[in-house]
Amino acid sequence: YTADTVFYQNSKAYAYFRKMTEGFFVKPIGDMRYTGAALKPEVWVYDGAKQLELNKDYKVSYKYNKDASPAGKKTAVVTVKGIGNYSGTQKVYFGILPVDVSTDLVSAEDLTVVATGKQLKNKPVVKFGTKKLAYNKDYTLEWRNTAEGAYKNPGTYVITVVGKKNFTGER
Questions:
Q1: Does the structure show a pLDDT above 90 at 132?
Q2: d(CA 57, CA 47)
Q3: Residues with Cβ < 8 Å from 8, sequence gap 6 or more?
Q4: Nearest partner of 121 among 136, 103, 140, 143, judged by Cα
Q5: Which helix or strand (DSSP H or E) is residue 167 part of?
Q6: Rounded Cα–Cα distance for residues 80 and 78 (Å)
Q7: pLDDT digit string (tens) for 8-66?
Q8: CA angle at residue 152 from 149 to 157, to 5 degrees?
Q9: Which residues contact 82 (CB under 8 A, 6 or more apart)?
Q10: Cα 5 to the chain's mean position, in Å?
Q11: Pairing state between β 58-63 and 131-132
């Protein structure tokens, strides 16, 4: 497991015993947090109590393992194919959780602009670590202050960053 693996207390830990017809079983994979890179969690494959060896007894491939899964779904797939003395294929699914923009993992710069008497809708630079996020792809902005002259007259106004796709929440 990695630091990005998320565990659930009430999960069914023994669901992997149901596929013994293949001669091997694959331990379930916990949900992981979106990182921006393809996630390739370690896979544990067993024949009874014996742990099998990668590239000797089985090989793995990954699919749909980069972007966050839709809410409540496990869409990332690890396919385990038996080789050598083992045959058959098993698929194990895991979810990729979006990053909450309100955490320290995401930053948004403070803006200082000069009031011009015209409506200003400047956009801050928003980053996930060192990667600059794309407006309308990774996040949207909301200018929620509706007072007369908001974002037009001199003053301090809040711009809310709202996560989208691989990001969730707001700051």
A1: yes
A2: 10
A3: 30, 31
A4: 143
A5: strand 167-168
A6: 6
A7: 444 444 444 444 445 799 999 999 999 999 999 999 999 988 999 999 999 999 999 99
A8: 85
A9: 22, 23, 24, 57, 58, 88, 89
A10: 11
A11: unpaired
